[in-house]
Design goal:
The protein is α+β, with helices and mostly antiparallel strands. The protein has twelve helices and ten strands. Strands 2-1-3-4 form a four-stranded mixed beta sheet, with helices on both faces. It has a four-stranded mixed beta sheet with strand order 8-7-9-10, sandwiched between helices. Helix 9 links the parallel strand 7 and strand 8. Helix 3 runs parallel beside helix 5. The longest helix is centred in the first third of the chain and has 29 residues. It is elongated and about 100 Å long. One of its GO terms (molecular function) is glutathione disulfide oxidoreductase activity.
């Protein structure tokens, strides 16, 4: 009888130990990096796995700011388990880079993927919002996806030491505006009154890139910050009627439309900008 009681105690203790191990394993699994990622994605409409200092991540965030959406952001560099989460992202989605963006559980991708979806209108569809305007965020309208760095040779290049190139869109003279609205007249007068004009938004990193070009050339452009004006939206519409682009920045030199950030950087790199400004390189 005593032996039977002892055996029962042993079995009970063994069962308790097994349960404890199972519970501990379950807890570890539920708190694993993979589980954290899956839970974050499932719990929020928009999730960005980011690093606070990363210009690519700032670019992705700027997209949602333009759309008046507030994503749930996980700053990996501010977490003790940030490296483990980044490794888990690689395991789950085949990418270790940041940012990684998700909408309603769907993996959008990185910065370029997010901007492409924004420019195509796909992002607005996924978010169920009606498009009205776009900031200059895409490679075709906003050049560098990183803050510029000055390197030997006095050239601005990207963080990856490359410049996104595209054919320069130069309009010899400002086309006649179809409208005589105050905003249209303002745009025409501004372009005619200053050698260099940048229509910009103060928070736009691609506008900062365009400004950095002229800073490097020791030129001070006349900057119109559309987001700081009550008539900013109407001015942006007037620009669209003039040059066929509703994005920012839009750069003009001596009445000629240089284009957006990408066009400005390309003109800088080719030396065309210096020629237009009468600067000997």
């Amino acid at each position: 009888m005593a032996a039977t009681v002892s055996m029962r105690k042993i079995l009970t203790a063994s069962a308790a130990m097994v349960c404890a191990v199972a519970i501990a394993s379950l807890c570890r699994a539920s708190s694993s990096p993979e589980s954290f990622i899956k839970n974050a994605i499932a719990s929020h409409q928009i999730v960005i796995f980011s690093k606070s200092y990363c210009p690519y991540c700032r670019r992705a965030k700027a997209v949602f700011k333009e759309l008046n959406k507030v994503p749930h952001v996980v700053e990996l560099d501010q977490r003790d388990d940030g490296s483990a989460l980044q490794n888990a992202l690689s395991v789950l989605f085949g990418r270790r880079t940041v940012p990684q963006v998700f909408i309603d559980g769907k993996h959008i991708g990185g910065s370029d993927d997010t901007v492409e979806a924004y420019e195509s209108g796909e992002l607005s569809k996924l978010l169920g919002i009606k498009e009205d305007h776009k900031a200059d965020l895409s490679p075709t309208g906003a050049a560098l996806s990183r803050k510029p760095l000055l390197q030997p040779g006095n050239r601005i290049v990207s963080m990856a030491a490359t410049v996104v190139t595209m054919r320069m869109r130069m309009i010899p003279t400002v086309r006649a505006m179809a409208s005589s609205s105050p905003e249209s007249l303002f745009v025409k007068k501004t372009i005619a009154s200053h050698q260099t004009v940048i229509f910009s938004k103060s928070y736009c990193p691609y506008c900062e890139t365009a400004k950095a070009v002229f800073k490097d050339l020791n030129k001070v452009p006349h900057v119109v910050e559309l987001d700081q004006r009550d008539d900013g939206s109407a001015i942006q519409d007037a620009l669209s009627a003039l040059v066929g682009r509703h994005t920012v920045p839009q750069v003009f030199i001596d009445g000629k439309h240089i284009g957006g950030s990408d066009d400005t950087v390309e003109a800088y790199e080719s030396g065309e900008l210096s020629k237009l400004l009468g600067i000997e390189e």
